[in-house]
């Protein structure tokens, strides 16, 4: 689970970087590209968060 948390943290940094680049971009194509990249990373982050929650729930249930 540590790997997933580390990957989640990296994705959160990538999301912030993409959004910053998007906000600074003057070219509309680049702005669109970094918007799509940030959205993609957000989707991946959501999936990892769901897996972390599922793992925690499984651990909790097996400990009872």
What does this structure look like?
The structure is a single chain. With 64 residues, the protein is mainly alpha-helical. It has one domain. It is 92% helix and 0% strand. It is built from 2 helices and no strands. Helix 1 runs antiparallel to helix 2. The longest helix is centred in the last third of the chain and has 36 residues. The radius of gyration is 16 Å and the shape is rod-shaped. The two termini are 20 Å apart. The mean pLDDT is 93.
How many helices does DSSP assign? 2
Termini, distance in Å? 20 Å
**Main sheet summary:** none
Mean pLDDT: 93
Please tell me the total number of domains.
Answer: 1
Q: Structural class, please?
A: mainly alpha
Q: Total strand count, please?
A: 0
Shape descriptor: rod-shaped
Gyration radius, rounded: 16 Å
Secondary structure layout plus pairing:
Elements: H1 2-24, H2 28-63
Quick recap:
This protein is mostly helical and 64 residues long. It has helices at residues 2-24, 28-63. The model has no long low-confidence stretch (mean pLDDT 93).
């Amino acid at each position: 689970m540590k790997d997933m948390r580390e990957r989640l943290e990296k994705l959160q940094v990538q999301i912030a970087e993409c959004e910053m680049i998007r906000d600074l971009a003057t070219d509309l194509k680049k702005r669109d590209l970094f918007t799509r990249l940030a959205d993609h990373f957000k989707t991946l982050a959501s999936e990892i968060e769901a897996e972390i929650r599922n793992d925690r729930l499984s651990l909790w249930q097996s400990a009872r």
